[in-house]
Fold these 2 entries.
Entry 1:
Amino acid sequence: MNLAKISQKIWQVVGLAVGVLFLLGVLATVVGIGLMVYQYKTHHVEGIAVGPNEDNGKLKVTVEYGLPLPSEGSDYLMIPVKLEKRKQGQERDAYREVSSYSYDKMGSSSYSSYSYWGPYYNLVFINKKTGESRPLLSHKGYIDGVYFPEKTYEKKDTEIKPTFLLLKIAMADTNHDGVINEKDASAGFIVSPDGTKLTQVTPDNTQMRWWRYDVDSHKLFVEIIQDANNDRKFNWDDPETVVSVNVLEPKAGEEFIPIEIKNKIDSLLLKK
C-alpha cells in the first residue's frame, strides 16, 4: 500500500473521529438543555393559587427567600420571596433560577435605570442599620418586575439616594383561571425605598408594559394595555396608551396626550 492511500485512510479515520466527537458534543448540549428545561418546568411555579395549594403527594410548593436585590444608595435591603415545587426529601441540585436583570442609561443624564424581573410573590424590606423589617404585601400577589427608574451612576452624585421604586403587580385572578400570574391584569405601583406608601398609579383592568422616567419634571410615563372588550385577555384587540404620574405626589396616572390630538392623528393616518 503506497503512502498516498495510507494518508487518505488516516484522514478518513480522523474525519470520522472528529464527526463523532462533534455529534457527541451536540448531543450532550441538547441533553443538558433538555435537563435544564425539565428542571425548570418541574420546579417552577407558574403563579400563586387563589385558594390553598394542592398537595398531590409528589410535589410540594415551598417558600424560598433569595439574595437581596442590589439597591445601592438605599438604606434598605430588599429580599425577594419566591415559590418553588419540590419533592419531599429531594436533594437540592446545582440548578437554580436566576432573575433577569437589565440596565438602561437615560440618554446623556447622570441617571440610569435598573430592572429586576420576577416572578416574586412578595418583597421583604430590611433596614440596613436597625434590622427593622416589613413585608411589602399583606395579601397574595404576583410581582412581575421591580424597577429603579432613578439611579445615579456618577461618583459626584453618590449622595443622591433613590426616592421611589416602580413595581408591576397582579393583585387578583382577573381571568378566573385559579392562579394569579402574568396573564392577569397587572398595575403599576410606586413604593418608597423602605417598602411603605404603596400606591397604584395605573388603572384597574390594564396591564403595565414599559415606562420612562423624566428626571427634570419628576414625571413617570407608563405604557399600559386596556382590556377594552372586557374579555379578560390582553392582546392585539386591546389598545395601548400612556399615562403620566408625578412621583412627588403619586396617584392614579392620567393620559397626557389630549383626546383631540389623538382624533386628529387618527383622521390623518387611518381615514381615507
Entry 2:
Amino acid sequence: MTVRTMRAVLAAHGTLIVVACSESTTGVSDAALPDAAASDAQAGEADAAVDASASVRPWIDTHAHSVGIHSACNTQACVDAVVATMDTFGVKRTILLHPPSPSNTSVANCEKSVRDVVALRPDRFFLGAGGCELNSKIQATVGTAVTQEIRDSFGSRAQALAPGAVAFGEMAALHVSYEAAHSFEEITPNAKLFQDLADIAATQKIAVDLHMDAVKQTMTTPSYFTSKSPNNPAQLQGNTDAFSQLLAHNRGARFVWAHVGRDTTGDMTPTLVDAMLAANTNLFIQIHPTFAPLKSTNAIVADETFAIRADWLDLLKKYPDRAVLGTDVFFTGTETDAKPLKAVQLFLQGLPVDLATKIGCENPVTIYGLPSGC
C-alpha cells in the first residue's frame, strides 16, 4: 500500500469503502478508493494524526455487532464484505457480541444469530455470548426479589452459553438511550445475577464485557440524551461504587469495561478510571476513541483527528497490560460505516509502537484467552 493510498483511506470520513482483500493482506487497490481529488481535500485531518511514513497497524477489535436496531448482517456475502473492510483498517480478528437486550422476546434466535455469523468466518471472528439472553434476564430483575429459582435458571443458561465463547456480553449496568428505538437500561452493577455471572465467568475463564456509563453519584441526565430519546429518565443513579463491589466479589472474574474514553455523563475521566484500575486488579478497559456524543473534555481524544489526550496517554502507559480496543461498530456489509474502524487506526498511529502492539494485539489474547492474536 502506498502512503498516498493509506492517507486516502484514512481520510474517507463517512465514505462507504468496498474493497476486495485477501485474508493475508491489508492492501487495497487505488481503484477501490474515493476520487483522488476529493480524498486530497479531506486528507488534512488524517495528515495531522498519521505520520507520512506510517503503515496500517494490526489490531484486534474486541467489541463489534452483527445485529443492530435497524439491521442484521448474517449472510456469507455480508460477512465477507465486512471482512474486506476489516482488512482495510488492519483488523485481524473481531469479537462479535449481541447488543445488551432488555427483553427475552426473541430468545430462540437472538443468541444463535451471533453464533451463526461467527461460524461463517471462524478464521476472523470470536464469539461473545449472553448479550441477548443473559442480559435480558438480569434486566428483568430490576426492582424485584431474586429468588433461588431465578438464580438457578440464570446459572444454567450461562453455563450452557459458555462453550465456544471468549466473553459474556454485551452486558449492561447503565445504558443510556440514543433514540426512541434504543433501549434505556439501568441496574446496580452489584446485582445478585451480576455476582453469579462473575462466579461463572471465573470458573469458565471467560471475560465479561460490561457496558456501564459512568456515574459517580446520582445526577441529572445530560440534556443531550433526554432530548434524543424519551426512554431516558430525569436522573441517573450512581454506579461506580457498586461496580467496585462487584469486582471485589470475585477477583478471579475478568471484567472489561466497555467504551472507556467515550464520555456520556461527564464522569468518565482518566482520574476515575485510574482509581478504578488501581483498586481492582481484575478490571480491564476497552478503549473507544471517539469525541462523540458530548464532545467532552474528558473524552480520550481531543477532537475528530482522534489524537489521544495527554492525560489518557499517561494512563495507558501506567497500565499497559490493562487496555484493549473496541469500535462498537454495527456491521451492515458493504454499507458498514467505516468511521469507527478508521478512528481506531488513527488512534493506534498516534501511540508509541510498543504500546500500540500491546493494546492492539497482545492484551486481547491474555485478557480474553484467545487462541490466536494478530
